[in-house]
Amino acid sequence: MRLVKENKAVLFLGGFLLGFLLMNMGKSILLTGTGMFDEDTLYHMRYMAVDSGALFCYVLRKRFLRMSGLILLLTTYLGALTCAVMIAWYGLSAGVFLSTLLLRYGIRGFLIALAGIFPQYIFYVPAILLLLRWGDREAAGTPEGWKRKFQLLPMLGLLLLGCLLEGYVNPGILLSVLKIL
Fold it and tell me: Which of 43, 58, 142, 163 has the fewest beta carbons closer than 10 A?
């Protein structure tokens, strides 16, 4: 538990670098014919119509199921390990996401990445950080009680706000950026 608490940045950066290295070393295998941010996919995205209500429901279900699973794991004896894996996984995902876009599109890829995560990550990042802090305290054996359970409410509220932005605001931003680039 203490190892995770003191080395969150190292775990995240290690995962990020691993994701970046994996994509750079295996780019011919991982990027060829996968459809991952290729020109055809982005071309079709430029001209698609997004049903924001359906997207919101889809995103809400995915995010809340994942968050619920993490909360459950954090309350078990695997809590500290779950925190460590979660931090490394988010780093790895960020490294793969960013390096894929940079490899394919250069600086335009960075702009596409920003458009893909804005504005919802303004709420997702604090929600994840609150969850990690809650998980650290859970792993430390902080006494259970209603106060402990109520600490999940701000995190879930931030997650809901992020889902609203991802469903209703982000598609417009992303499509606008794709049309410009």
Answer: 43
